[in-house]
Amino acid sequence: MNSKMILAALLLSNGVVAAEIPDFLDANDINSAQFTCLGEQPTYSAADQKYIDTLWNETLSYLEAYAVALTNEQESNCLNSDKALVDTTEGGQKMCIMDRRDMKLMVKNIYQVINNKDAAKKCFGAREDVNWIYNPGGELTKNSPVAQHFKRTTFKEFFDKKVKDKKVKNYGKSFTKNFYKMVTGDEVKMPAVFPYDISARALPNLWAAAGWFPMYAEESKRNEKNFDNVRGGYAYAEIFGHWGLLRIDEINGQKVGAEVGMTVQSVDTLYPFHNHAISEIYYNMRVPACVNEFKTLAVREDSPLVKTVKEDDKIRKVQFDVGQHNSQTLWLSGSANRDSLVYLHQNTIHAFEVDGSCEAKPEERALVSVWARSNANDKRNDYGTTRLCESAKNPGTPAKRGEVIQCDLTKAKW
Predict the structure, then answer these.
(1) What pLDDT, in 10s, does the model give residues 73-110?
(2) Contact of 368 with 275, CB cutoff 8 Å
(3) How far is Cα 202 from Cα 184, in angstroms, rounded to an integer?
(4) For residue 52, what is the DSSP state?
(5) What CDD domains does its record include (predicted)?
(6) d(CA 23, CA 5)
């Protein structure tokens, strides 16, 4: 990272908008940017406003650090870019992440926000009226005046009242009990490309009040293909995006596709094989308890390992043998210390396995990530759908390691 970017990062992290922007951005696009909100502009009383201001300042810190990390070249041999893993086959394939146009647009959008924070703030709100996002509760809420002020249904209430499956409910109760330790423990660490800490330790109000969604916990046809421990042990929060706190439809007349937030996945789980029609990225924020604790599988849709078995004008049904000879080589390890960034092109089949056998207290630990999707504005391609794969031998049941899996890939329109 060059000295100008470090200075900008330090200034912004202290709540001061730096006058100088990175030289790889066009200042004409950044200065005096015009914002169109998605939905109506939120309004708040004077009593509410001080809490909104706190949440807004932590949001700006989170977004700014993320943009700096993505464009940090210090360890990548890239130009103004971090390097990302994109496919785990053939020993792993990587790219300079800022070679992707969607990434450049997302970074530009973030700088437009942080350099025009007063104009962008009109699209920002606590979203306390949304009944399907939740407060983790516990110590996280106790340490956050903002989360205490803006009331939401807690994880405890959610799993008690909205989850029917007893096994999922029990996993959810453990997830709720240990959530604070999962996101604040000493093993949570920012990758080196980040200019400062944006974990729950540094931004307690944002992590407590962002609004979390245990997206797999409730009953649905899709979740018949999921694992109980993931259904009760996974949640994400969105900060910037269509469902988040900062909801911007357009900047300077151009649609905004960025969705930025964080995810938490309990250890001893396999986030199921799945795919979606828009691109997605993750920064791993965990130091592993053992070398291969966090493993990723990612296979591009055009890989020779992916075989088409059926298709129509909207969906291509494919099969992929996860149990093939030397299948363990399809999985690569990563952590906050090494290969922390993963970029998943549209329709990439991927999964995340977290091995808890080397954790002293596995129930208190999780994989914590900075997460984003980059082209959510392209509604032609069903941006909101995560498609879980299934067992090819037993359709409708979870796809497991060691067998042939079957996935529905969206036929993307362009």
Answers:
(1) 998 999 999 999 999 999 999 999 999 999 999 999 99
(2) no
(3) 9
(4) H
(5) cupin_DddY
(6) 9
